[in-house]
Amino acid sequence: MQKRKKSALRRTRQTLIVLLPVLILIMTVLMIVQLRMNAANDPSEDLATAETDVSADLVIPPPESESVHQQQTEETDPEIPVSDTETEAETTELPEEIIPEQEPVTLLFTGDVLLSDYVLNNYDHSGIEGVLSPELLEELRNSDVTVINNEFPFSTRGSQAPDKQYTFRVNPKYISILTEMGVDIAGIANNHVLDFGPDALLDTFATLDQANIDYMGAGNDLARASALITKEIGGQTYGFLAASRVIPVVSWDIKNASPGVFTTYDPTILLSCIQAAKESCDYLTVFVHWGIERDAYPQDYQVTMAKQYIDAGADLVIGSHPHVLQGISYYKNKPICYSLGNFIFNRDIPKTAAVKVTIDRKNEPEIRLLAATASGARTVLCDDPEKTEIYDYIESISSGITISEDGVVSQP
Fold it and tell me: Would you call 274 helix, strand, or coil by DSSP?
């Protein structure tokens, strides 16, 4: 029994001897695990880790000579590359608004037009080039607006005005001459438009209307006779008014009869029309019939009225009636052409000139004369030396202007 107890004790001791190292190992492992868990929650470990990371990112600077060279290169080399995104951001700009270049606008004015028997005979035999040279036709047709003084009625009706030295009337079929010339506006405020009475004047209205040619300066009532004619070109409004300071009898005045002529003996109504027209027009022309026949110089009243028209808002004053050229002047930088003479009339016209007004996008006009002459009832552009003689002549009867060799009128 005693022997059996000793044997059991010996076996237990041997077992403990075997298990003890295992227990020690297990306890050691547990202690290590516990220590690591505690270390994971210790902020000092984060600091150490951070310091380790910072030190890992540190760049050891190059030697002093290399560093200085690199700095100089960065400061002086214009070819330092930048990123595509940065380059695009610096160079990309919003597109500017494209404003189309506006073509200059041309207005062309002629003097008195009478389709006399001489002119009609040329037209019947040779067409429009029997009346005007090709070069002059090109100028008339290519202008944006061509304006004439229509010195007669279109009609086959009516009775001739009594006690009148000269009376004119033209068959309406010859309206084709005006259309082939490129006429856009006919001024009919003059001392011949009622030569054959009211019926002939009514026929004139109808003939011009059918040809799509605007007329100004006469009508069935004052509103129509004094009406503003406008043309819209290139976004600008060009206005035209016409009146006469010459009629043979007071019964021709629209205030006394219907149809009739808009007159400017008393300029009050015309000045009101100019003021009203200026509100809607970018450039306004007043076309007026006045002066003394065959007189090369304007009357005092012409000078006074022209200034009144400009003060009221006119940009250009064009005159007719004297049948000869008169001088040109400026008032407040606005041109006044007192008379352009005859343009198409009887057989011979020694000197005449059309006025070509070219207006740029700044609304600044260039005034240019187209010197012309007529022989055998055919009007042609002049070449040197004839055109130079005409320019010199106009300068001589004008005040304060010069005319260049190509006909441009300017103030010294």
Answer: helix
List of E strands, 137-228: 145-150, 185-187, 214-216, 218-219
344 within 8 A of 114, measured Cβ to Cβ: yes
CATH number at residue 145: 3.60.21.10
In a domain, 142, yes or no: yes
In whole angstroms, what is the distance from residue 275 CA to residue 309 CA?
9
The string of DSSP letters for 340-393 reads B-EEE-SS-EEEEEEEEEEE-TTS-EEEEEEEEEEETTEEEE--TTHHHHHHHH
Average pLDDT over residues 301-316: 98
| Of 86 and 284, more confident | 284
The predicted model scores a pTM of 0.76
What is the Cα–Cα distance from 233 to 245, expressed in whole angstroms?
Answer: 30
Rounded to whole angstroms, the Cα distance separating 260 from 200 reads 11
Q: Which residue in 382, 280, 325, 363 sits closest to 107, CA to CA?
A: 363
Note the pLDDT of residue 24. 72
The range of the structural domain enclosing residue 252 comes to: 105-410
Domain for residue 329, yes or no?
A: yes
pLDDT at 13: 58
Count of domains forming the chain? 1
pLDDT band, residue 412 (cuts 50/70/90): confident
